[in-house]
User: Fold these one by one.
Assistant:
Number 1:
Amino acid sequence: MQEAAFLHPFAEACYTGPLLDFGRNPILFPCAWVYRQGVLTPWARRRRPALDGDNWWRGHAAAFLRFVNIPPKALLKGRVCQSKREAAYFVVVLHDKRTVVIGVRGTETPEDLITDGLCRECAFTMEDLDGLVNEQLPATTRERVISTFPHYGHGGIVESARELFMQLNGENTSSGRLGFLSTLLGEGSECHGYKVRLVGHSLGGAVATVLGMMLYGKYPSVHVYAYGPLPCVDFVIAEACSHFVTTIICNDEFSSRLSINSILRLRSAAISALSDNSPADTAMIQKLARRILHVNRYHDNGPDDGIIQGYADHTRTADTTVPNERQISHQIPLCNTELDLHNTQNGFFRYNGSSASIDEHLSYEGISSGHDMQIIPLDGADSGFEGHQTSYREIPVEPPEMFLAGLIVHIVRQRRSLFPLWKCWSIQETEPPYKAVLAKRENFRDIVVTPYMFTDHLPWRCHFAMQKIVEAQTPMRRAHSDPPVQQHLV
């Protein structure tokens, strides 16, 4: 927890744009952003490192350096302007800690939102899993990873991690050119023997997790601290990453519970709750269901017009046929994560409105667009797609469940006592406001709707909670510690 609290500012400092400055200083936000960007000191431009995509006065480098309070020479490399499926990052060397810190920025730009939205499952290649099948991990973990292949992850995050891996460690064997990290950490270099720490908040934490999985095979000193990341890998990979990934979740933050399946379950629960608690007002429920489930187009076009035709056009252009048993959509390393606008407009593939209930309709529509739904034909593989409209029954299969990776530390807010203040004043002074507990990853499969689900995701909330936990642990360690170090030195 101490190292996680120490490295958290590096993850927060990656937000060099105006977004977090507006949250920290809602009134004086323009002044705070201009000051942090170094606009008032343009003469210091040449002393700041040049980052990929930075502005003329190198303001993003200035904002990062000012937030973490390190000298300009400590910032070696970085990128602040990126396209979709790319991540902004910063590489810092802390010689006093003998540590190389790689900070990955979370969601701040529209390109980051696109990466967040490309959430269909993507198959990992054996090169991606190289860090999990080498000799650094226990034999049982390696065997489980290999025996359960293929494995899947969040498509946008996996592709961002692959691109960032090439930026940091891409090597050209034909020309003999070494990658950036190989040059920095190689034998005989200035940082040889240094530890490697990857940090990131929200989307950055998820990208750092997958990137650490790729780097762990070559750099055994890699450890990832992900603060409020998105679920991004399947269960087996999440368990295998427990040796080098620490995921920290602040109370009820929503991002660590955000996935396709959790959204579908939340929507189904909301509609079921409305239908159970308001049986009299059926007209209101039906109107709400139409808006949520996007069935207006279906009722306008009729049961056989547009929707089934759109699905038939989609299946005729598919590259592979569908076998009798369940098949996963992605079987090649490159993730097909582009949005299928045609099927998205249709809303779902097939819906028998005369007999299906709201829950059945939800299951068909919610897991529908593109590869988010696989179709299992029941009439045999020889029938082909031409007779799809009349000879096939469709069973929707949910996409693979995504989980948080690594060792999960859940920071929970302590409940205050309801007794009067004068009766529990002594208790309130001794109890810390937060506590950290080890949690199971299965506990974060569903979204928790609370008043604090969005505010708990703010990075300074997590940093404040970790500081309080470390401060509460320090007196306890001193009370149970050995005699002072001076006595041993004597």
Number 2:
Amino acid sequence: MKQHTAFLSRTLRSMLAVPVVALGVVALSATQASAVSRPAIVAAAQDQLGNSARNHESPMGSGCNYYTGYFRTWKPAGGCPSSDGVQWRDSDWCADFVKYVWQRARVPHANVPETGGGILTGWAASFKDYGVKYGTWHTRGSGYTPQPGDSVVFDWDQSGDIDHVGIVSSANGSTVYTIEGNSGDRIKANSYSRSNIDIVGYSAPVGGTSEEPRDGNSVTGDPYADLLTVDSAGKLMLYSNNFVRDNGQPYTGSEPREVGHGWGGFARTMPADVTGDGFTDLLAVNSAGKLMLYSNNIVRDNGQPYAGSEPREVGHGWGGFSNVIPADVTGDGFTDLLTVDTAGKLMLYSNNFVRDNGQPFTGSEPREVGHGWGGFSKVIPADVTGDGFTDLLALDSAGKLMLYSNNFVRDDGQPYTGSAPREVGHGWGGFSKVVPADVTGDGFTDLLALDSAGKLMLYSNNFVRDDGQPFTGSEPREVGHGWGGFAQILA
């Protein structure tokens, strides 16, 4: 994906902000493809190396670091700061750093919590264990040429115990270059002779490829969310973003074009990267409750998404939910589905597209991930924190916008429950539609709000700049008018 500075969004981001709300507003953002790009792993490590807010211990030499706080909440926090919603914690942290980078790059098995049976832990030796288990382990003396994105493990005193781990950024015939956490109390770029006896070996990421990460956050497959509208005649119109080309003014620089018809008859339409290829597909629930998948083959079909193949049924019985919310809950690049039933229970239907031979949402029993969700006027999925896991924004009857952070890995696969929600805005009840979309292409979901006059207003996220308080640090700006006449806005 595109190399910005919000970690994966800027590097491989599969950023997802695919909302569905009762008002017929859906956000059309896609998630990153499932292939594990080695350049994306390195870019994610470089992103953290350059992040001056967290690329060192604070206070220096204290052991307090962001990465242990992100994963291992049982470690001591005395004297440690907090940032980006994470309480920093005191521990050796080289393994936490490498796990964070691998998880951001969507390396298989890196997102399984340590306390939930995950092989990667806070111990550097777990990276050798990963390679041994999945057949990607190579000793220093094996003749293997280390590849970008590999983990490299060290035994500083040749005692037989692994002491340290880093990320390989590059290598040549004689030298391996690395990016390491907990190297002199900070993240550092280092280099070693490939014959250095401190190097034990390398574990490659499962499924690693040398392909550059491809942008994927929209109908057109770039990181800038486009808009789809359904008019009263059922026509599906594409408004391309073109944020960079048009000097930061999205949706206005080109005439919209028709990309489908007959879309007015569905009970619910949801954008979601079901197939994990980085292009937003569409899911539609018909009057019989069948869930139909319209794949986006915009490249194959010469710029015409959703029309080149017959839709196929991927589920039934979906008509009875009060809300269906597409969201990459598990952070694997394939959009899952959340449902709210009449009792207010929040149920997760995982998308195991690859495991289940292209049949999403059906291979596992749904599981409850929350309750009491029936009282909100809107539930908006959005990667507010820019970490690749979809958070939820809930709008209450008073117009308050509440953020429920995902924290899927930290909380052992139980999203939205490990932290109290926090208010990130008020006065949101007066908008007829609120559409989450990464308009600016930085990996953090922005919000588009439609007022009673049909004006489309952009509330930029600016999560990092504004110290974790999204949507409030800048005045909203108008990015369109005349949007009030559409039956649906899909973003």
